Amino acid sequence: MNLEKSLRIGIDWLSLYDFEISHDERDISKETTSIYYQERLRIEEPLFTIDSSIRIYEDGRMTKYKSLRFNPNRILWGNNINNSRKEDLELAIEKLKEMLRAKGITINLSNAKIKDIEVNINFNKKFEELKEALEVMFINSPNLKKISNFEGGYAYRNMFSDGTIQANWNAYKGIAYDKTREVEDLDLLSEYVTRLEWQFKSYIYNYHLSKIGKESSLKCLINNFDEIIDYIFKEQTKRRLVVPAQNYIEKQIKSNLERGYKRFKESGKLGKKLNKKVERNVYKYLEEQYWIFDHIFLEELVEKYDKPHKTREIERIRKRYIHHNNLESFNYLVDIIFNH
After folding, report:
1. pLDDT tens-place string over residues 160-183
2. Which helix (H) or strand (E) holds 168?
3. Closest to 200 in 3D by CA, of 248, 148, 227, 240
4. Quick one: which of 265, 270, 294, 295 has its CA closest to 280?
5. CA separation (Å) from 60 to 16, 28, 41, 55, 334?
């Protein structure tokens, strides 16, 4: 599969309201209760869900509800690996209209507005390679949880591996997950893909639009697609993930490592004075008790506190702890997202 349309910021699912719909009366289900009379059309299929209803209450009040939810990528390509841009969204809408016309349903989306929308980007890397960088991005997010996948085997420590990180701010959700594992079809997707996704409800979507002087209609989205979608994704990622991660790295990870390093060294000096056996591997201690995140942080500690042995210690760090290289992964994510 060509990943060109996948490795970019784009739309996944979106839901619309305030559109016009006409259909055969035979498609309507009718319901009468002690409170209201309702006429409803609902079709739920893998490519879309459409729901339109009218309720007339005993007191004469009338309410109308319309919702159209669809995934442009599934309509166009039969999967949701790709991410749709403007031209894809327009083409998907035309195909959706054709599918509905075949069912005797006509929709007019001229005045349609966005109810909710999912915007994401894929990275052509294994989730495991990006996991710690994504974890530090999400670590201060509300309602944070990780979901693990069962890997099998006999050793308990190897039975489960994290495959999803997600947080919920109520008006929106942020999710990072192993897209490759979700697909599980080598003919469709044979490469490693990790996805970062934002799910926006209308409230937060409208909030972002107000910042750039736009409104929530489908027409406005199509006419200003690049400006709206790229801005929302980048702004949300910067504000909720990247900046908090940078602060956490400096104020928590690095500060805790420094305190742990100094504490270990001081304990070692005291142990020597008291002729007690002293553990000499400070890096092993830090690895077990703290979050190293990147070997560069260890080198910075040596530069600051152990200049006489700097060359020897840095060589030791690069030989045994070079696998802590998450700054590279973090910078990779930031570069891909913000240089689109």
Report:
1. 788 899 999 999 999 999 998 878
2. strand 160-168
3. 240
4. 265
5. 27, 21, 21, 10, 55
